[in-house]
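Tokens for chain A. Residues wanted.
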């Protein structure tokens, strides 16, 4: 009977060990801590069921990284909601020449006058690129650059975009129609810069967390509690998302300046806020835990999928155990070649990553109900009585609701549920968010229905032809402030959907694919915006009511199906992979070599090395063991 050397070695060293049988003297490598072991303060089963769970402390650098995200998102959201009016509406009649309308009218700020269809095309293509390109840049960060270097260059590219955008607000360019050239260039350069920044910032933030497994601790008052890394991640990401939306509130001053001053100031304010970012990143560069690029696992993922389809096929997807045939231990047990550069734990990580990817593909429905399909929400607000309030300021109630509710969840609801021993898992939270988003979609649907019903232009209330004899816009008698309700409800839904998504993207990914899996989370948004772009031709009068109504109906059904499909994840403990850099290192050795060597490739920090932007390197003490056999 043939020996199962791969399985035996993994039993001895833990599932992180791996073996290449192809070469003489090949090497088995294992992490210092195998995935099956726990620290000395890991709770017992009884303690898990009886002790209160609390979040751990957040390191100071985590708050600084949240501040980086705040500045970048403030500059991004300071301009992005303005795109629809800039492209859609013409230079207002009787305006000041900078795009601002005459005081006391119901007109909105405008510039290019290209209509709702082209405005939707520009805004949706921008968002699609901003959320699709992270797939590429996340991969580059994982394989070549490292996440911090990608963040740095993303900041530089975005800065160039903001400068170009300010130039598009020049009155001469607005007057002769040439503003579209620098504006459109700046829009798509900004999409590239945002795509470089976004997939790397949240994994870098979560890399700073010290808690990776459950741990018991006695508080000063004598109470013994469990430090739960799931709750630590939940807390830091709520702070992260809170500061994103405080930054998003930058659209309030930019909306007002567009309506009362002009586009040049609306585009200049975000640039001012953006300028301190390079200095802040320079300050942080020696104070962060940074993981060097570790090579690509993407090719191995495709190889694993190939083995699984060959040996199990589609049937196993539904019966269970689809990924089991690709584990080296099972390959060896079946008498097949074990010449594969991964271990059993990596296959489990791939399985969890695909599970996360399936979750992410429900997110477009939340996006459509949160802010409307395409530019439909913007079109709706142009039909309502504004009384001097810029119509695009309503979008900020999305951010305002998040700013108000994030502390309520962080320090009110979630701690209360923990004290009551109620586990409100990520799937339950996401389902709540999907249903809340559907409620927001229903609100948009009702508002648009009545705006059509009682408006002066019927089902053509958002069209450019809905004007009086003097060319001034006609609107319904419904107050613009009613639109704040669905915007706010949609914002709260994001706290229940997006915050758990950051944790799932990080914890369910192999170490060398965290940037890529985070990008997959963002890619689900790209799908939503691609559909919005494809539907640009029908995001106009008289179809707007159904542009809101159809996603609402689908959203309710999808939320229930989502919970039924993924509810078992709520029963799992928080699990951050302990599978180290499993990549195989081969060395030819003589027959006499049988010693145990040690080497190290840990993450670095300020105490272990000096970082430069040419690459993220790693130097440290002996941690990983290599057994030569």
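Reply:
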């Amino acid at each position: 009977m043939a020996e199962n050397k791969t399985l035996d070695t993994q039993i001895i060293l833990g599932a992180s060990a791996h073996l290449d049988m192809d070469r003489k003297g090949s090497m088995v490598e294992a992490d210092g801590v195998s995935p099956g072991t726990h620290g000395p303060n890991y709770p017992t089963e009884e303690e898990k069921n009886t002790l209160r769970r609390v979040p751990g402390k957040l390191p100071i650098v985590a708050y600084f990284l949240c501040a980086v995200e705040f500045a970048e998102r403030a500059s991004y959201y300071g301009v992005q909601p303005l795109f629809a009016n800039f492209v859609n509406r013409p230079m207002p009649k009787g305006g000041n020449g900078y795009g601002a309308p005459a005081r006391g009218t119901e007109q909105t700020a405008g510039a290019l006058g290209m209509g709702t269809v082209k405005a939707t095309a520009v805004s949706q293509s921008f968002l699609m690129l901003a959320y699709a390109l992270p797939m590429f840049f996340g991969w580059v960060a994982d394989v070549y650059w490292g996440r911090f270097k990608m963040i740095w260059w993303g900041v530089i590219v975005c800065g160039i975009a903001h400068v170009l955008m300010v130039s598009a607000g020049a009155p001469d360019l607005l007057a002769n129609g040439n503003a579209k050239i620098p504006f459109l260039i700046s829009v798509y350069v900004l999409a590239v810069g945002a795509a470089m920044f976004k997939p790397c910032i949240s994994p870098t933030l979560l890399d700073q967390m010290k808690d990776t497994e459950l741990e018991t601790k006695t508080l000063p008052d004598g109470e013994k509690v469990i430090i739960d890394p799931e709750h630590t991640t939940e807390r830091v990401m709520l702070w992260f998302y809170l500061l994103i939306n405080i930054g998003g509130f930058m659209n309030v001053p930019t909306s007002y300046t567009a309506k009362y001053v002009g586009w040049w100031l609306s585009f200049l304010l975000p640039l001012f806020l953006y300028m301190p970012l390079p200095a802040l990143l320079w300050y942080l560069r020696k104070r962060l835990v940074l993981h060097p690029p570790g090579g690509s696992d993407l090719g191995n993922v495709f190889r694993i999928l190939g083995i699984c389809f060959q040996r199990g096929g589609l049937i196993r997807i539904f019966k269970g155990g689809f990924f089991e045939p690709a584990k080296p231990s099972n390959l060896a047990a079946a008498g097949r070649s074990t010449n594969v550069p991964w271990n059993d734990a990596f296959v489990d990580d791939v399985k969890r990553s695909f599970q996360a990817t399936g979750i992410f593909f429900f997110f477009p429905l939340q996006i459509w109900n949160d802010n409307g399909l395409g530019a439909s929400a913007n079109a709706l607000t142009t039909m309502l009585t504004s009384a001097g309030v810029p119509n695009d300021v309503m979008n900020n109630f999305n951010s305002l609701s998040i700013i108000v509710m994030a502390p309520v969840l962080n320090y009110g609801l979630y701690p209360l549920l923990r004290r009551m021993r109620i586990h409100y898992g990520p799937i339950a939270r996401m389902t709540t968010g999907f249903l809340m988003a559907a409620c927001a979609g229903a609100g948009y649907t009702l508002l648009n229905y009545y705006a059509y019903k009682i408006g002066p232009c019927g089902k053509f209330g958002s069209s450019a032809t809905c004007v009086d004899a003097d060319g001034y816009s006609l609107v319904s008698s419904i107050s613009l402030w009613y639109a704040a309700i669905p915007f706010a409800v949609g914002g709260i839904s994001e706290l229940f959907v997006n915050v758990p998504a950051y944790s799932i993207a990080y914890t369910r990914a192999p170490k060398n694919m965290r940037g890529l899996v985070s990008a997959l989370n963002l890619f689900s948004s790209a799908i939503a915006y691609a559909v919005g772009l494809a539907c640009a031709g029908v995001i106009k009068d008289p179809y707007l009511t159904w542009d809101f109504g159809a996603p609402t109906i689908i959203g309710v059904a999808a939320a229930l199906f989502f919970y039924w499909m993924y509810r078992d994840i709520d029963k799992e403990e928080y699990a951050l992979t302990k599978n180290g850099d499993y990549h195989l290192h081969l060395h030819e050795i003589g027959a006499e070599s049988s010693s145990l060597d040690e080497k190290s490739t840990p993450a670095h920090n300020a105490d272990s090395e000096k970082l430069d932007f040419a690459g993220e390197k790693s130097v440290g003490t002996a941690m990983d063991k290599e057994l030569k056999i």
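Confidence is low (pLDDT under 50) at residues 1-35, 581-629. The longest strand covers residues 624-628.
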